[in-house]
Amino acid sequence: MGFYYATERKRFEREWDKLRKDYEAAGMSQEAIQLLYEFDLECFRSQRTYEIHTQALPSEYINGEKIENSVLLRKFASSTISFDEADFSGRYAWVDTIENQRLVCALRQLSIEDLELLTFLVIEEHTQRELAEKLGCTQEAVSKRFIRIKKFLK
């Protein structure tokens, strides 16, 4: 979805008009209110920059037909991979498809539980909340495990 600057800026200013009144009523100084406004405005601008420079890669197939003329797919062809799951034996065979040997060695050192977490989150693209429900723990616990794995793999 696009980022319509004028519309979003008007919405931002309307919200800030309300916030400014609330902050004044709470007894904040004009200088403090202005600093908060400037910080939020910088965050707003940063989000705008992100939205302008980010777009999703299109699916390689639309309605069963392969797209050959996608500029984005051609530009990022080296960072895409496709494979048939039937060619691999076992749930964690995706590890063997990785070309970086250091990463493969590190992944092989992980426990089955950690490989399962990675498979569920990264390969199958489930959410941390879904995994937490499956494991019977909190989303925060899953997030901490995922952060620990990422640190280990770095």
Explain what you see:
By secondary structure, the chain is mainly α. Helices cover 60% and strands 3% of the residues. It is built from 7 helices and 2 strands. A two-stranded antiparallel sheet has the order 1-2. A hairpin with a 2-residue loop joins strand 1 and strand 2 (65-66). Helix 1 packs antiparallel against helix 2 and helix 6 (128-135) crosses helix 7. The two termini are 33 Å apart.
DSSP helix fraction: 55-70%
- Mean pLDDT metric: 82
Global outline? extended
Number of strands: 2
Please outline what is shown here.
This protein is an all-alpha fold.
What key phrases describe this protein's structure?
2 domains; two-stranded antiparallel sheet; Arc Repressor Mutant, subunit A; 7 helices; 154 residues; mainly alpha
SSE blueprint and pairings:
Blueprint: H1 5-25, H2 30-53, E1 61-62, E2 65-66, H3 71-75, H4 101-108, H5 112-123, H6 128-135, H7 139-153
Helix pairs in contact: 1-2, 6-7
